[in-house]
């Protein structure tokens, strides 16, 4: 595990490439994040990165995506196209799908760290098809899906796992 970030006010809320160690000696802590050199070493010997909120919704991509956005603009348009080996949202599963993903978090003044906005896949130069899971929205418009520090929450039932009050986003590599 590289990071554990609880939903709401205690969330880590920063891009993964920022060196922000939290409780590194206590991986069972509610808030946890390895230092960037440790994350880099683990990324370099890993094949996959998984982001989930301890429910059925998850993202699985190559571990090389861990520091996406590094060196990109220092503004809220810091996004990257990510090819997800698997991406599941509210029971809708995609395989080998490229999805525009934003990297900067709310503590950096943006919408939420590592989030997907279904309705903005064709915006900001991503040039992808909106609503990648079903062709129609699965979450609320502009919901910062997969961000536990979301500026815009999902209000469409069932609520996305990362936006439940009990959510804790885990970022892991293997």
Span between termini: 9 Å
What structural class should be given to the helix and strand makeup? mainly beta
Shape: globular
Give the spatial strand order of the biggest sheet.
2-1-7-3-4-5-6
Oligomer: single chain
Mean pLDDT: 96
> Main beta sheet, described?
7 strands, antiparallel
The helix-strand sequence is EEHEEEEE
Radius of gyration using CA atoms only = 15 Å
Number of helices: 1
Count of individual beta strands: 7
Produce a short descriptive summary.
By secondary structure, this protein is mainly beta.
What would the keywords be for this entry?
mainly beta, 7-stranded antiparallel beta sheet
Secondary-structure map:
Layout: E1 3-6, E2 32-33, H1 36-44, E3 48-52, E4 58-62, E5 79-89, E6 92-102, E7 168-173
Antiparallel strand pairs: 1-2, 1-7, 3-4, 3-7, 4-5, 5-6
Explain how this protein is built.
By secondary structure, the chain is mainly β. It has one domain (3-60, 73-173). 5% of the residues lie in helices and 25% in strands. Strands 2-1-7-3-4-5-6 form a 7-stranded antiparallel sheet, with no helix packed on it. Strand 3 (48-52) and strand 4 (58-62) form a beta hairpin. The protein is globular. The mean pLDDT is 96.
